[in-house]
Amino acid sequence: MDYTQTLKLLEKHGQTHLLDYFYELDEDERACLLNQIENIDFAMLDTACHSSGREIGNLSPVKTLSVPEVEKARGGFKAAGYQALNQGKVAAVLLAGGQGTRLGSDNPKGMYNIGVTRELSIFAQQFENIKEVTNCLKQPFDVFVMTSDINDAATRRFFKEKNYFGYPEDKIHFFIQDMAPTCSFVGKIYLEEKGKVSLSPNGNGGWYSSLIGSDIGHYIADNGIEWLNVYSVDNVLQRICDPVFIGATLKFCVDCSAKVVKKANPYERVGVLCLEDGKPAIVEYYEMPEDLAAETDENGELRFGCGVTLNYLFKVEKLNSILKKRMPVHLSKKVIPHIDGGVKVKPEQPNGYKFELLVLDMIKMMDNCLAVEVVREREFAPVKNKTGADSVDTARELLIKNGVKL
Ligand code: UTP
């Protein structure tokens, strides 16, 4: 699009300020800016800015495969899981495109040193967990690593420097997630520089479309991969491509499954897997009505106590069928440095929104979802903050309890 066409487009969406400095830019910068604007998903922005938040439907608890039930069937599940892995039908997807603002490190979160007397990055620990499975396989499974424009180079460099944590390099595939513009509280898109729209990673929910749209998008179909185990970078006890989890999912013939833990208390800050209007859904902790969060059943257990650990198994066929569907867009308040009156400003307080798609919304797009309970102390050690709850401190304690030398 040329200048005039771009201006017309911006007029339509009330964003003409993006061209305020156009004539101060050189040829290349102008071309870049026009190209950036052409790629903005204005429909997504308009919907997000004018939505009044999500209305929660009728919630009911979801049937969970409890730890004792899993134990009883462990042998059969494990055998089925190993068989699928040995047939190359399952691969892993590491979500590592986040900015980890709460942890407050400039590096990708996975590079964070969780060790005490030795260096042990989160990435390295997760690959140790992976090797516990691949040591029993004929061949290692593929690991797709999602990064963002912001941390892609640093992540790749770190993997290379660490010799891919002893994992075969040709089984690790990087792809970059999409970006979304940031905007002020009244919906005006920010410029990061005079010739550059302010962009941020578009959340972890766009992982499949970003993967399929990338230059390795064909790999899944070409290699007969039927299941993808998606997991977050910030749980150091994450069990990846766990054969028991895979086997349970296959035996129950579902489209997807989620590893869940019993919530520690009604107000723990985790999403809850339940049924919403009869369909599987995850309700975020800040969306859950307080009375429901605290409700208990006849055994004194929380009725809505199925906390998700950001470890899901999705059937590829089902993912393909929802690929073109629009996902809800979430707004999160952030501090966004930007150009104001021709100069760069760095606000102290949140001054606008980032737009995010969330992987948990994919569950609602599935017809069914199996909740598989896991032992919290063995599988859930989130690293969200430096100290306090879900922090480096709590994750270290749990690693030590699991026999990991720090
Ligand atoms: P979080 O929602 O905890 O976000 O990510 P974050 O960016 O890591 O941390 P904060 O909120 O800024 O402190 C959960 C998982 O989703 C990934 C993260 O890397 C993490 O594995 N994620 C998040 C992405 O891959 N892309 C995103 O745009 C956001």
Characteristic terms for this protein:
alpha/beta, single chain, 8-stranded mixed β-sheet, 3-stranded antiparallel β-sheet, 406 residues, binds uridine 5'-triphosphate, globular
Number of strands: 20
Question: Which small-molecule ligands are present, each listed once?
Answer: uridine 5'-triphosphate
Strands in their spatial order, largest beta sheet: 2-20-12-15-11-3-4-5
**Shape estimate:** globular
Largest sheet: 8 strands, mixed
Helical residue percent band: 25-40%
Q: Give the terminus-to-terminus CA distance.
A: 55 Å
Structural class by SSE content? alpha/beta
* Percent of residues in beta strands: 15-25%
Point out poorly predicted stretches: none
Number of helices, counting only DSSP H or I runs of 4 residues or more: 14
Question: Rounded to an integer, what's the Rg over CA atoms?
Answer: 22 Å
Based on the structure, what is the oligomeric state of the protein chains?
Answer: single chain
Mean pLDDT: 94
Task: Please tell me about this protein's structure.
This protein has 406 residues and is an alpha/beta fold. 31% of the residues lie in helices and 21% in strands. It contains 14 helices and 20 strands. It has helices spanning 3-13, 27-38, 42-50, 67-86, 122-134, 152-161, 207-213, 219-222, 243-251, 290-294, 316-322, 360-364, 376-379, 392-401; strands spanning 59-60, 64-65, 90-95, 143-147, 172-176, 179-181, 183-184, 191-193, 196-197, 199-201, 227-232, 256-262, 272-276, 279-283, 306-315, 330-334, 338-340, 343-345, 352-356, 370-373. Strands 2-20-12-15-11-3-4-5 form an 8-stranded mixed beta sheet, with helices on both faces. It has a 3-stranded antiparallel beta sheet with strand order 1-13-14. A hairpin with a 2-residue loop joins strand 8 and strand 9. Helix 4 packs across helix 9. It is globular. 40% of the residues are buried. Bound molecules: uridine 5'-triphosphate. Uridine 5'-triphosphate binds next to loops.
